[in-house]
Please model this.
Amino acid sequence: MPVPGDSGFLEEQIGQWRAYLHRRQAIQPVDAAELEDHLREHVASLTAAGLSADEAFLVAVKRMGALDDLSREFAREHSERLWKQLVLVSTDAAVPAARVRTEAIFALALAVAAAALFKLPALFGKDTAHYPTFYARIFALVVLPLLTGFFVWKRRLDTRTVRWLAAGFAAAVVFATVYPFAKGGNTEVLTALHLPIALALLVGIAYAGGRWSQVAGRMDFVRFAGELLIYYALIAFGGGVLSALIGMMFHAIGIDPQAFIGEWLLPCGAAGAVLVASWLVETKQSVIENMAPVLTRLFTPLFAAALVTFLGTVLWTGRGVDIQRDVLIGFDLLLVVVLGLLLYSVSARDPASPPSAFDGLQVVLLVSALLADAVALWAIAARITELGFTPNRVAALGENLILLVNLAWSAVLHIRFLRGRGSFASLEKWQTDYLPVYAAWAAVVVIVFPPLFGWI
Model:
């Protein structure tokens, strides 16, 4: 293991610093390479002056001038005492306080707007209790345009891009609200499930701020989406506790607040929390960037063990997979989580690092998920052959085929990397290039399935 003062330790520290730069949205790869050259020049001059390698590195990072704020953020991700002493000496914030305050106010205003718009149909007799699938269908139409607007404002996107984004959301409003869905029918449920996936592409384009065509830009959005889920889950947990406490307190004085909680507090909170969580991700990225890789390393072996156990049980018992709608949704969510674990491990990894035991574990996870997907596809095809086509079966068939292609090629690229015959960057590019495929299939389900299956 490298020790402070030797060249191995220096290269390890520069590697961490380089990986950190690549994760920052504002730093382009070519800029990161130039900044690394400057850093090495500073280190060389300081070591020539008599400093040890670790001292020279710390002082050089501190003296990077334009990178001073970035260096301070990097220091917050490392708990070494020397980092705190040498880098966290300034009280200046990485972002001006006025800008943070403005963004907070704007995000909060959008959150209030999302809550108000989400409950607007209630004024026309559509309450959440009697029209749950309607509200599930419009949730993305209310929240995601406002979230995109936040990034349009923050990234200062050009007028042409804004027009394309607006056109995409306008089309979504037409297909999701004008279609004569059967209340609670399969196509309405499928629309509610797939519309957020289709519209996520528009959010990603706004978030990337002109860098969507680059792998780094798309990977930044992947990180944002994962971090948003973590923050949203935390807020939802807190909201659940708050709701329970409100119910307990008012029940103690003989008042039943369940109608208020179910009709107003939870729906409005669910809509507004997306905007609040997004702002928190933007403001506190370094906290979650540490949390997500840890969660990935924790759950990758657990999911791998679960999938291997499942496949072993299928082989031992000879039982097929029940493909009822709820089971299919759960099965697809499992495969999506596997891909999420892969994406997050890719996003948090230095592409230049050599293969490790964890990479081998990921291959086990990918191959297991690939086989599980094949089992599900076999069951879906058998049910379609026996009972015919339905919206749920066709949607599940398409989604599992899309996941099968992604898992198969990801496994090939990962195995090539382990064998030294491919680069890790090719896996990262494949995953980010595949993102529009999910959005395209989701759009097909939203636009084509309802009229194709008679709105049922």
About this structure: The radius of gyration is 25 Å.
